[in-house]
Design brief:
The protein has a domain of 171 residues: Rossmann fold. The chain is 32% helix and 27% strand. It has eight helices and ten strands. The structure holds adenosine-5'-diphosphate (ADP) and magnesium ion. The site of magnesium ion (MG) has 3 residues, from helix 1. Adenosine-5'-diphosphate binds next to strand 2 and helix 1.
């Protein structure tokens, strides 16, 4: 899916500095401009410390005082939006709540706790292979299972925008590859527009319509790579010459290879 023509996310000359006592402010993001089309999955790929999380948090409305334009669905982002779903590297489930009750948490915030919400949460849990674990507590689950539950929690209120910050970074490689197909399957069914932060070149290429490569801090767009591999993606595509060429291009943009 190449994504529709509508520009859903509109980012222009986004810049962010953090004050430092007795020093020049730290420039985290220098100048980032791109468009996120409706239904698209764009990865933000860049080295550690280059400003990826800062950018994602700005889009999430969690960072005040940035420069430039950040619009989602035509509206300037200034504060957290209930219509967004966020997944971080750590699942951050509440250990004293069951899996089902963790997934339902956003619905509680929105005051939508009826039978329909429970049904939606159960449906999502079964889609990610957690059927039968509704009443389990997070510490009883593996890291991958916790992250799948966190994904359900991010999706339960059918967000217009899914923001993911290295969500699979703490998982082993096999679990990670499973999560890639799981995420793409969910994306196929829900059509959720997604920004996905990663520092893994192969993860970025495997998942994305577009890989936006951030330079070292302060972040500029080093490349904006349209991934013209068909969906559904298949694990064996990772070994195709087209895939490897895309990885090579990203690696050149990162300054790792020539
Ligand atoms: N709240 C903050 N206050 C001060 N500096 C920050 C803050 N958040 C991030 N930074 C700095 O901005 C830079 C980019 O950080 P970050 O966006 O977390 O990078 P990444 O996610 O790409 O690893 C880093 O140098 C970091 O120390
Ligand atoms: Mg980060």
């Amino acid at each position: 899916m190449a994504g529709g023509a509508v520009s859903f996310g509109h980012f222009r000359n986004v810049r962010k500095t953090f004050p430092r006592p007795g020093e020049e402010p730290l420039v985290s993001i220098e100048d980032i401009s791109f468009d996120l089309k409706d239904g698209q999955l764009i990865s933000l790929l860049g080295p550690s410390g280059c400003g990826k999380t800062t950018f994602l948090k700005i889009v999430a409305g969690l960072v005040k005082g940035y420069e430039g334009t950040v619009q989602i669905a035509g509206e300037h982002v200034r504060e957290p939006h209930p219509d967004f779903g966020i997944v971080f590297q750590q699942a951050n489930l509440m250990p004293w709540r069951t899996v089902l009750s963790n997934v339902l948490f956003p619905m509680e915030i929105l005051g939508r706790t009826g039978a329909e919400a429970v049904e939606q949460a159960r449906e999502l849990l079964s889609q990610v292979g957690l059927e039968g674990f509704e009443k389990a507590y997070p510490p009883q689950l593996s890291g991958g299972m916790q992250q799948r539950a966190a994904l359900c929690r991010a999706l339960v209120h059918k967000p217009k925008l899914l923001l993911m910050d290295e969500p699979f970074g703490a998982l082993d490689e096999l679990t990670r590859m499973e999560m890639h197909d799981l995420l793409l399957g969910i994306r196929e069914r829900t059509g959720a527009t997604t920004l996905f932060v990663t520092h893994s070149i192969s993860e970025a290429v495997y998942l994305s319509d577009v890989v936006a490569v951030f330079s070292k801090r302060p972040a500029l767009l080093a490349d904006f790579i349209e991934v013209d591999l068909p969906y559904p993606r298949r694990q064996e595509m990772r070994y195709s010459s087209d895939f490897v060429e895309l990885e090579h291009r990203a690696s050149r943009a990162l300054g790792i290879s020539r």
